[in-house]
């Protein structure tokens, strides 16, 4: 299933654009890779902080994230390996930040979840107030790109604590959390198809839920707790990485290292939900 996520283009923004679209086409493979990166970020972060000095792990992840984002911002268009490298580093670093709030600062899961939800909502409000669109296919200016990656980072941190909240505070365990988030991610897809939910709203709703879903899956596979399979964070991280690389290689062979130039869409009429 494809969700075409296209937003309204204000005349001022349209005239200021200098970039080609810098996000991938939203297809089934996009969602699979996204869930894999969220899961890998969860377990690899856990692997690093348990096998390396936590301070060094956090600092190294911050440096790698900075390098990945610099490469992404300097890119003149969507480049598959650069984009997904940035997503992977956001997943790893976002997990570390969420765990820092939970286990080092000592904030309760509920407080962190509510706090990050408020931050995420504020980003969306600010983004829409400035740009009049939340469409990922309108990421054609530096300012929109900054909004996008700030939002992505926040969703990864939020998803980490939300998964911990359901597994530990609500006592659903990892498997119960997987079932919960699998049902939750199906809701916007069903609402988009049969209840008229706008494409932009459906996309972002599903995007946010991919994080706790992917993290719950890999936690269940790797954890040595009673509700986990105990396969280990190292092996699960490696397996997820191999799967990600294989799928990105497949997309590269298909010529998916670019997205259509949507700048010519600026003059087309848009619906009230931002779809075309």
SSE map:
Blueprint: H1 11-16, H2 28-51, H3 54-74, H4 80-104, H5 109-131, H6 142-169, H7 173-194, H8 199-222, H9 233-253
Helix pairs in contact: 2-3, 2-4, 2-8, 2-9, 3-4, 4-6, 5-6, 6-7, 6-8, 7-8, 8-9
Short summary of the structure?
This protein has 276 residues and is an all-alpha fold. Helices cover 70% and strands 0% of the residues.
Task: Explain this structure.
The chain has 276 residues and is mostly helical. It has 9 helices and no strands. Helix 3 runs antiparallel to helix 4 (80-104) and helix 4 crosses helix 6 (142-169). It starts with 10 loop residues before the first helix and ends in a 23-residue tail after the last helix.
Q: Major sheet, described briefly?
A: none
Q: What is the N-to-C order of secondary-structure elements (H for helix, E for strand)?
A: HHHHHHHHH
Shape: globular
N-C termini distance: 17 Å
Residue windows where pLDDT falls under 50 for at least 5 positions: 1-17, 260-276
Number of strands: 0
Helix content: over 70%
Rg over CA atoms, rounded to whole Å, is 18 Å
Mean pLDDT: 86
Beta-strand content bin: under 5%
- Briefly note the structural class of the backbone: mainly alpha
- How many helices? The count is 9
Task: Please describe the structure with a list of short key phrases separated by commas or semicolons.
276 residues; mainly alpha; 0% strand; globular; disordered N terminus; disordered C terminus
